[in-house]
Specification:
globular, Aldehyde Dehydrogenase, Chain A, domain 1, alpha/beta, 24 strands
């Protein structure tokens, strides 16, 4: 067991309802202060094989329970997550650098809801009737089989439960591959599943890095689904091996989302909301990172947002006052610094920030770069750190063209008079976009991106469409007479 702030965290893989050690290990540390947190097993081919075998063996009985039979298991699972609130908050904040206040007030309640909402929604999945003059079509959502769930380090608990909820509620069995830079909340999640008495094999977890552990998992032909959130480059590799086995993939990838401020916007509201983009050190795929501001408001907006950003508290994410925490890893800090260095050498102007922050080794100051051009790397590529860019436009047509001029299409924000902002938002190529707001989400609504921001949608019926095989049971209304002319 690891001891994280007084909480015991299991160290092994979780396979077939038991904790399994590994021969090889890797080290983990806290991004808050560099503190060594311990060693975890690095999943070998044998561990992945055992996890998939366990899930495959458990699948028929779990699927046969039906949504009603699975409901009490999943309700207990959510309850056990709630019982571990303090441990999950302390451990994930320490392990991933996420704001403790966000975990306490947002992420833990949402993680519990991710399980119960889908468990209850699954009750209405079966036998949706399509009634035609010739026949009745009973449309069923059958569980697909064994699912691989691969989640990123920026929101491991929330995103793991977000995928597990519909996967398990549909009747699938799952193998989780946690992020190697922030794996510990997934271990506590397995502890909760064990206490909830989920049948052995229904939920498994194998620690390890993307290479080789993740590669072993995604290449296995026994998988029926792969759900991945992460980088475009990793998604390409997953897509190649999944294509070999014809395994459907759901891919939620990066973003370079526009934050549009129209000429008729509430400047103060837009500027205050703009400062929120630095939350979690902008290690958030859906954040607006390209600010497109109407010429007439550029000076006022820049001054107001700079004031709000200057008041942000950067530091230890476990302090209540903190609003911006650390970057996750030294490699991520180096990546962010390199983006800024190249941009400045190319002529970009640092409007604020642009350096490491005195709060600690992995802290980078909230940064805004101006004097950038549409084809600049800093405008086109995802930084995944607290570095935003500011551009201006003079017409709606120009704003729309600029908003759409990247390879990404995940999220977006648009401030302006409501009907005007809605009209612009309808023309931005993106999976979702907030009008005069930010961060409003609902489990019944779709989430996902277009272009290189991903394939598929999660949330509501869209999650079930992915995690299920859709079957049409056709019952004729009058006696059937076979004929070669029948089609």
């Amino acid at each position: 067991m690891l001891n994280i702030k007084g909480h015991a965290v299991p160290q092994g893989h979780y396979i077939d309802g038991a904790w399994v050690p590994g021969a090889n290990t890797y080290s983990i540390f806290s991004p808050i202060n560099g503190e060594a947190l311990g060693e975890l097993p690095a999943g070998a081919q044998s561990n992945v094989d055992a996890a998939i075998s366990s899930a495959a063996a458990a699948f028929p009985q779990w699927a046969a329970l039906g949504a009603q039979g699975r409901l009490p298991y999943l309700q207990r699972f959510a309850e056990e997550i709630g019982k571990r609130k303090d441990a999950l908050c302390d451990v994930e904040s320490t392990d991933a650098g996420i704001l403790l206040s966000r975990l306490q007030h947002g992420i833990i309640p949402r993680s519990m809801l991710n399980i119960t909402w889908f468990a209850e929604a699954a009750l209405s999945l079966q036998d949706k009737l399509i009634d035609t003059p010739q026949a009745q079509h009973f449309v069923r959502h059958d569980p697909a089989g064994v699912c691989a769930i691969i989640t990123p380090w920026n929101a491991p608990l929330m995103l793991t439960t977000w995928k597990l909820g519909p996967a398990l509620a549909s009747g699938n069995t799952c193998i989780i591959k946690p992020p190697e830079w922030a794996p510990l909340s997934s271990a506590l999640l397995m502890d909760a599943a064990h206490a909830a008495e989920l049948p052995p094999g229904v939920l498994n977890m194998v620690h390890g890095e993307g290479q080789p552990t993740g590669a072993y998992l995604t290449a296995d032909s026994r998988l029926s689904r792969i759900s991945f959130t992460g980088s475009v480059s990793t998604a390409r590799e997953i897509g190649k091996v999944a294509a070999e086995n014809l395994v459907p993939c759901s891919l939620e990838l990066g973003g370079k989302s526009p934050f549009i401020v129209l000429a008729d916007a509430d400047v103060d509201l837009a500027a205050r909301t703009g400062a929120l983009m630095y939350r979690n050190a902008t290690q958030v795929c859906l954040a607006g990172t390209r600010f497109l501001v109407h010429d007439s408001l550029l000076a006022e907006f820049t001054e107001k947002m700079a004031g709000y950003v200057a008041s942000l508290s950067v530091g230890d994410p476990q302090l209540e006052k903190t609003e911006v925490g650390p970057l996750i890893h030294p490699r991520q800090l180096q990546r962010v610094e390199a983006f800024v260095d190249r941009a400045v050498k190319g002529g970009a102007e640092v409007l604020w920030g642009g350096t490491r922050h005195e709060a600690g080794e992995l802290y980078y100051a909230p940064t805004m770069l101006g004097n950038v051009h549409q084809d600049d790397e800093i405008v086109q590529k995802e930084v995944f750190g607290p570095v935003l860019v500011m551009q201006s436009f003079s017409s709606d047509e120009e704003a729309i063209a600029m908003a759409n001029a990247t390879d990404y299409g995940l999220g977006g924000v648009c401030f302006g008079e409501e009907s005007h902002a809605k009209s612009i938002s309808f023309q931005v190529r993106t999976g979702f976009i907030w009008v005069n707001s930010f961060g409003i989400r609902d489990l019944a609504a779709p989430f996902g991106g277009c272009k290189k921001s991903g394939i598929g949608r999660e949330g509501g019926d869209w999650s079930f469409e992915f995690f299920c095989d859709i079957k049409d049971v056709i019952v004729p209304k009058k006696p059937f007479s076979p004929s070669f002319a029948q089609r």
